[in-house]
Amino acid sequence: MVRRTVPCLAVAMLFATLSTSTVSPAQQVQQGAHLSQEDGTRIVGEVRKALSGLTTYGVFDWITFGFRGTTLVLNGYASRPTLKDDAGRAVKNIKGLSGVDNEIKVLPLSPNDDRIRAAVYNRVYTQAALRKYNANQGSLAQALGPGGRSFTMMSGGITNNPPIGYHAIHIVVNNGHVTLYGVVLNQSDATIALMQANSAPGAFSVDNQLVVQGANPGQEPK
Predict the structure, then answer these.
(1) Which H or E run includes 208?
(2) Cβ neighbours of 176 (radius 10 Å)
(3) Which residues contact 150 (CB under 8 A, 6 or more apart)?
(4) Most buried of the four, 7, 56, 103, 128, by CB within 10 Å?
């Protein structure tokens, strides 16, 4: 049986409706016979809990996971190397796993990508229809809090000091190319997010991988 990778976080009101088949088929891994349905269900819950507790996981990162036999496979993108290491450590001792294959890609350090992250963040999360997906309900300045903007400028940019709080729409920037990941309530919000990201200065391209709540596998917004 094949099980597709699982988004490790989604907004609380949406995540309960997601199945393991809502992510791109290109990210499939093989479910081996040695992992029972009962163990698989338990392990998925424990992995989600472990990854959701990572303080280094933020709006500019995206992690998925699946199984190859009894080996847990981590995939996705980390804007900082510490996240990849933290994710591997968080799940390595879960009972029933024979090992962890950490295939999370660490994104390159880039001042240009840093600027694009900030620009896309502001375009997406200041849009009235999309503020409900952001615990901060607004702009980057709001997300960083008092003095946050000057602190970020002094300490290496928004990548090293990402906005705090929950974000349903994740913004992954890799060498100027933007990909949106996450779960939204409807197709209209997915389209608005794409339009807002496309309007951000500096982005070479925008790929919309947002999943609409309740959509059938493979029905991804374009």
Answers:
(1) strand 205-212
(2) 14
(3) none
(4) 7
Identity of the residue numbered 108: P
Please report which confidence band the pLDDT of residue 222 belongs to, taking 50, 70 and 90 as the band edges. very low
What is the per-residue pLDDT across 27-43, written as a single tens digit (0 to 9) for each? Answer: 344 444 477 888 889 99
Residue 8: DSSP 8-state: S
Q: Evaluate whether 117 touches 152 at the Cβ level (below 8 Å).
A: no
CA 10, distance to chain mean position in Å, is 8
Cα–Cα distance for residue pair 64/202, rounded to 1 Å: 27
**Could you report the per-residue pLDDT of 149-194, keeping only the tens digit for each?**
544 444 457 888 888 778 999 999 999 999 999 999 999 999 999 9
- Taking each helix axis from N to C end, the angle separating 111-125 and 187-198, rounded to the nearest 10 degrees, works out to 140
Tell me the backbone φ, ψ of residue 205, rounded to 5 degrees. -160, 160
Among residues 81, 45, 79, the alpha carbon closest in space to that of 62 is found at 79
CB count within 10 Å of CB 60 equals 26
Kindly give the pairing relationship between strand 105-106 and strand 71-78: parallel
38, β-bridge pairs: none
The DSSP code for 4 is -
Report the predicted TM-score, pTM, of the whole model to 2 decimal places. Answer: 0.78
Identify residue 22 by its one-letter amino acid code.
Answer: T
Task: Write phi, then psi, for 217 (nearest 5 degrees).
Answer: -50, 135
Distance CA 104, CA 87 (A): 9
